[in-house]
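Checklist before submission:
- one chain only
- standard amino acids only
- sequence pasted in full

Submission:
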Amino acid sequence: MNRALRTAATGMYAQQLNVDLIAHNLANVNTTGFKKTRPEFQDLMYQTLKTSGVSTNPNIQQPSEIQVGNGVVPVATTRSFAQGDVQPTNNQLDLAIQGDGFLQVRRPDGTQAYTRDGSLKLSADGMLVTSQGYIVEPGLSIPADTTAVTVSRDGSIEVTTVGSATPAQVGQLELAKFVNPAGLRAIGDNLFVETPASGTPIAGPPASEGLGEIMQGNLESSNVDIVEEMVSMITAQRAYEINSKTIKTVEDMLSIANNVKR
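Returned file contents:
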């Protein structure tokens, strides 16, 4: 019975983690460029009480064996990079990525990070930055007398300045993609960083080498499906409840055994 208690406890812990991830997904349902996560579980080691093929009669072989499992363990959280809905904003500095690829940003410590959040801003010196103030690589500067900014699907940036009717190109955006984007590590602020599991980034201009296209005046919404998450939450709640009832059942059985009188 002690085994049943431990097994049910692992099930409760697994479903608690499941609910934690669902809550995080739902909390970020309106976060620009957010990518939902889901847990992955594996069964724990088995205790073999009787192996197959063993019998007291040499003319008979047991066709199956007796094994008892020891519960479940979380092994990974997998992030889905499915495309989120693209919503128009009519803001000339809002950029959505249609397809694979990430914007590259420079963190304060000089390291590189990656994001799908294209709600860009201008810093005091005219640099393209994220909402947190991180510089968007390769470090593009917009002139102070700019009246209009145009970003094409291939990432080329043109500006129209005061007194000029002809747009002039001032830079070229670059995107990065990974062989295994699910291996990226989320660090908050809508940012991801490279890990050994993700592989090294493959950078290039948008609309080339399988990289996504830039859609100016739009933002990518979260790819969280509220209905799907609510159904998953109900399923996790019921699984947690059943495991807790298992513990109560084992407790009742132990109580009965403890009260047996000879």
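Reviewer check: The chain has two domains: 2-81+224-258, 86-220.
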